[in-house]
Each structure stands twice: as structure tokens, then as C-alpha cells.
Amino acid sequence: MSEDVYVIGTDMIRFGRFEDATPPRLAAKAALMALDDCGLSIRDVQAVYSGNCTETMVGQRTLQLIGQTGVPVVNVTNACATGATAFREAWIAIKAGLYDIVLAVGSEKMGKGMLVPKNSGGTPIPSEGLAGSNTMPAVFAQMGMEHSRAYGTTFEQFARVSVKNHHHSTLNPKAMYQKETPLEEVMGSEMMAYPITKLMCSVNVDGSAAAVLCSARKARELGLTGRAVRVRGSGLASDPFSERNLVQADVNTVTRLAARTAYEMASVGPQDVDLVELHDCFATAEICHYENLGLCGEGEGGRFLDSGATTLGGKVPVNMSGGLLSKGHPLGATGIANIYEIVTHLRGEAGARQVEGARIGMTHVVGLGSACAVHILEKV
């Protein structure tokens, strides 16, 4: 497992709503864009890992559109961590010496409105439970309220996360929304579950993203190291047992577990990270994840945001893409879209939103249930 793995190609479509598109068609577009990014074709790919939460055999159906070469295809689902898990499986396959060039792709078509959990028969699961409502806004509202109770974090601080990320999105042509949202507008929008308003919720969109991973040896052989980015650490964790987890998933603990694995593997710490794409499914989550990822001390998330540290030009800019709040959150694609954003900065190709001098970046995504994937990438 000593072979370094590089991302040599990556891209994503602009997230939005595409009424006539299917997940395989969305995936095919991103896959071809990522292959074009490194000058390779589907014939060069030795395996495919496809992430999607809602349909079956999306990977094979994608290859029907871009080239059926007979390679192994693995379809992955891990809630919101689906794309990141597909990426990690591709990384593992190369680390294990099975392949030299692997394609990871994530895609999703999302309905409008609130996500409602369903059982295996497709029937909605009742939203009221032992820990209150199980709707996503309510779950993450509770996360925010617990942080407020323990550390005094305010409604305004949570709202400022949305102001920041919506501002970053105006610099990202691939974001669903590219619009400033002043603090008063965020705080005054429709209340979903206090302290979360509508403009503090992630956007359900259609989208796809892809990455081409390659062994270091093969990248050198092909002369593709110039824009390559090294995958330096990868962590994936699930919920450890606790009495609390019997009624509600603990995204804080699972994030800390995955981050610890990634940091140890990469031999770096939070102080070494230059930028982060983290899972801001709701504004409350971002402040909590500052602490879970070690970017600031326990209980300091609100003050860390207020200091400007996580804004473009700050100590460690967070969600330069606009995050899930503005870029959008097509579940199966999100994890790889985060990889695309970090790789773009490490290459120095992010344009107006470029984090200058970025050498190490981190991606983080949580699938409630729970699965957390954290990746640390480094400029070669």
C-alpha cells in the first residue's frame, strides 16, 4: 500500500435542475469532462466506481453512453457520503495495486422541497420520534441548539455562515446560485426549524462530478504529473455505539473519527490545512464541524467564523465553492464535487475565488446514518 495516488483529472457540471436528464446522463457528462481534463479516454480506465443514492446500476448505464469496455464497475451508496466513498474505493483499488487508472463518478437527480426518509418499501418514515422530529432541518437545528446551550453560539452567527457561503458562490460559475444574501435577508427568511431559516438550508439540485485517479508511477509514465494532486490521507468512519445513537445519529463523533484517521495517514494536522470543503448541509453544521475537524478549539466555532478565518483571504477559507448552501447538494455527486473544488485551488486554477498559495486542502462529507469521509489532498 505504498504507491502514491494522484488525481490527474477532475470536473463537474454546473449544478442545477435538468428535467430531462437521468443520473447516467449526468454522470456521463462529468466523466467525459474529467477524462478530457487529463487527456485520456474511457479506454484508458481500468475500473469505475459510481456513486448514486436513488437508482441501480448507474455505473454500467453510464458506460453504455461513453464506452462499454468490459471493466469492473462498482456502484456505491452511502447517503450524502456516497461520492466521497466512491472516490475512496477508487483510491484503495490503486493503493492495493489492482489498477493504475480508475474513474470515480457521482451523480444525482433530486426533487424539490424537503428530503423525507423512506423505508425499503418506499413509504415515508414518520418524522416524529424519540428525539423529536427526524426531518433534516430539525435534526440539524437540534445540533445548533445544543451548541448554543453549551457555548452561547447565536442565531446571528449561524446566519453568518450562509452570508459567507453565498458570497463565495458569486465567484463560482458552477454553483447553482450565485447571489449575495445579506444577513437581514438570511435571518428574515422562512423559519424551517429554529435556528435554521430557509436560506440556511442546502439546495436540492441535480448534478454530477468525476475524478480520474492514477498511480504515481503511471502518472509519471504518461507525463501527467504537472497538474496532478496527491491524495495524502483518506478516512472513512461510521457511528460507534452509544445510547444516544439508538435514537439519533451523531455526526460530531463520526466526523472526529474520520478526521483523525485522515490526519494520521497524511502526517499533518489541522494547522497545516490551507482550505476546506466541508458538509454545510445546514448552516449550524458548519460551525460545529470547524471544531470537529480541529480547525479551532472546542466551543470556539462561532468566534472562529466571526474572526474572518473561514472567508476568502482568511486563515483557512471554508467552502469557497459556495458550499452545499449555494453550490447545491446532489447527494451522490457532492463528495466528488468537493474533491474537484480542492484540486482546482491546489492547481491554482480557481480564478476569482483562488486561495493563494494553497498546498494542502481537505474535504469532508457526512451521510446521516452515519458515514463520514474525510480526504486530505496535497499539491505535488
UniProtKB/TrEMBL annotation:
Keyword Disulfide bond found: no
GO molecular function, one term: lipid binding
Pfam family, one: Thiolase_N
Keyword line: Lipid transport, Lipid-binding, Transferase, Transport
Residue ranges constituting the Thiolase N-terminal domain according to the UniProt record: 5-182
CDD domains: SCP-x_thiolase (cd00829)
EC number: 2.3.1.176
GO BP annotation list: lipid transport
Enzyme category, top tier: transferase
InterPro entries on file: Thiolase, Thiolase-like, Thiolase_C_2, Thiolase_CS, Thiolase_N
Domain Thiolase C-terminal, residue spans: 253-378
Tagged with keyword GTP-binding: no
Protein name: propanoyl-CoA C-acyltransferase
Species in which this protein is naturally found: Rhizorhabdus histidinilytica
